[in-house]
Amino acid sequence: MPINERSVFNNSGRPSALGVLGVLGLLVLSTVGVAGGAGKVLVISWVAFVAMALGAWLGSRADRTSPHRLVWGYGLASGAMVTSAAMFLVPQAMGLGTAAGTPRIGGIGIALGIVAGYGTHTVGHRLTHLDTSFDTTTAAIAAHALSAGLIIGLVYASMPTLGLLLGLAIVSHKGPAGYAAARRLRRDGKSATALLLPAAGVGLTAIPSALLTLPQTPVVNAVVFGFAAGIFLHVAMDFLPNCEAGSEIDEVCSLHEHSHDLLDELRSHAVGSTVTGAALVVLAWVTVAP
Fold first, then answer.
1. Tens of pLDDT along 157-171?
2. Which of 64, 136, 157, 243 has the most CB atoms in a 10 Å sphere around its CB?
3. CA–CA distance from 93 to each of 4, 9, 116, 157, 198 (Å)?
């Protein structure tokens, strides 16, 4: 893809205009969230921002990518996301579906979320091959962050009693995602400051949607929670460390000697990291549960 020096998404000589605007927007909305009492969503939004911004900062300065760190970053995040969605969103969807007449309503929402996540990811990948004036990878990450924030805000608006653990686990992938994206941008000679927009993206949509007054209808809430569970399960599965030939991790391993042996070793780390991420969520739940 050719580099457009005037792109608002990426300019290696100066900070990204959209990235700066994203941060300013998050600051403004944070004051609105404080006034509206959206404390939990504010914490989740800023944790997502700091995680991706820090990951991008580290990725833009790394001379080489450590495959072990990449696997553990993805594995911990995906394991935490799968477990959180299964523990906190799926039971809510099924319970609300039961209240509406049948738990299958929640199941419909889960199926819709998984299919929608797959569909948008697959179609969105086609956009990365288009010759446009902006970096489409950054735009795709931003779109994902904005949509995830919208869902997080709606979930917490529907069920304010939900704890912070769910939201924090859901955005745990922002760190490794920011790191990997910044490494790709650096290889293309582009500025990683564009990633400030997707870093702020969760808060840009989560805070306004969390302040909405939603109808407390079991059918609607069952579909919303099911859809959220399906979306986040899809994202979590997409972040599972892929140690197969042609994957991102395989590309990193190809830069090292004995890359085939290293890839075999990383498969064990992939399993260990995902199990650890899942166990940490369960441990945190047991610790904070009343």
1. 888 888 888 888 888
2. 243
3. 45, 38, 17, 15, 28
